[in-house]
Amino acid sequence: MNAELELINETIEDTLNQIEKTPAENEQSDKLVLLLLESIGERQLYIDSMIHDAVDDTFASSLSEQLLLTDTFISRCLKVMSHRQSLLNLKRTHERQIKVYQNIDSNR
Question: Where are the alpha helices (DSSP H) in the chain?
């Protein structure tokens, strides 16, 4: 595997680890998501070029390995996304509850 692709994969892995540890309300979280999107885009372009440049079957095992890694990244990204959506929904619910209580207090 090429060192550049290995570096991109490590960046994705590290970014996912940081996203999982960073609270959703932290502004660093948004920056990490952008970095993840950029890294995934770079990875996709790199793998596309690997496929187009493949002359023989020697790339088959490397591409299979990358496919498995892609599946792992997808699974982790879906878990992170689901967790973030749950947090955002919970935040919205709390904000609505606060507004209801504020309206009740203002009508007294």
Answer: 3-21, 27-53, 60-106
